Amino acid sequence: MNSAAAVDLLRAALLVTAHIAGPIVLATLCIGLLLGVFQTATQVQEQSITFVGKLLAVMCVVVVLGPEALQVTVEYMRSQFMGIAGVIR
């Protein structure tokens, strides 16, 4: 395996990771920001509000985008397993 192939493997792994984790992180960021503004405006300083809001957002994103994330992961792993033969030779 040369360095170009290793870089391609790393790039593909990072893209799959970003594709799977990106929506979850984005939803958590948006909910955290909205709840932070709400808590600042109402002067309610309860940490569980933010935690529960983020937890619900993550659960919703996983339920909605879970099948697509699983499909992306399976396609990536299938391509990696098919590429093993090329690495061994």
Describe the structure.
- The chain has one domain.
- The mean pLDDT is 91.
- It is built from 2 helices and no strands.
- Helix 1 runs antiparallel to helix 2.
- It has 89 residues and is an all-alpha fold.
- Helices cover 92% and strands 0% of the residues.
Give the SSE map.
Elements lengths: L2 H40 L4 H42 L1
Helix pairs in contact: 1-2
Largest sheet: none
What is the residue-mean pLDDT, rounded to a whole number?
Answer: 91
- As residue ranges, the low-confidence spans are none
Approximate helicity band = over 70%
Shape: elongated
- Tally of alpha and pi helices: 2
User: How many E strands?
Assistant: 0
Q: How much of the polypeptide forms β-strand, as a percent range?
A: under 5%
Category from helices, strands and their pairing? mainly alpha
Cα end-to-end separation? 9 Å
In short:
This protein has 89 residues and is mainly alpha-helical.
What are its keywords?
2 helices, 89 residues, mainly alpha
